[in-house]
Description:
Oligomer: single chain
Structural class: mainly alpha
Shape: extended
Radius of gyration: 21 Å
Largest sheet: none
Amino acid sequence: MNNTDYKNLVHSTTPKSPNLKNCIKAFVFGGSICCFGQVLKTLYGLTELNEDEIKLAVSTTLIVITAILTGAGVFDNIAKHAGAGTAVPITGFANSVVSPAVEFKSEGFILGMGAKMFNLAGPVIVFGCSAASVYGLIYWITQII
Length: 145
């Protein structure tokens, strides 16, 4: 079998992906998470917190709710339907930290949960911090000039 025959075979047996349906689901679920975040921001705004504390409280609340739902096995079921709608907001990051911790807890706290918890999130943290540092350096240089 040559490459062309193989590509034709793969193309004929691979199911078609419902891209439009997936995009709509991601938009609705991701938008719902963001709307919930806005509701939290409004509710926290009724307290005596300042703007920075409100932003921190909203982010922390979304992370804690996601961690609890992930640990209970609920978030993965939501993500099956929502797709990128749950992966893009801060909830996706929280899920990527908690999921490996839950999966590898049987291997112990240090070699299981501790070692595997940042397998997926670790590169995001490293490259996110690196990109922020480079951006900060460029911004600083442009401000001096």
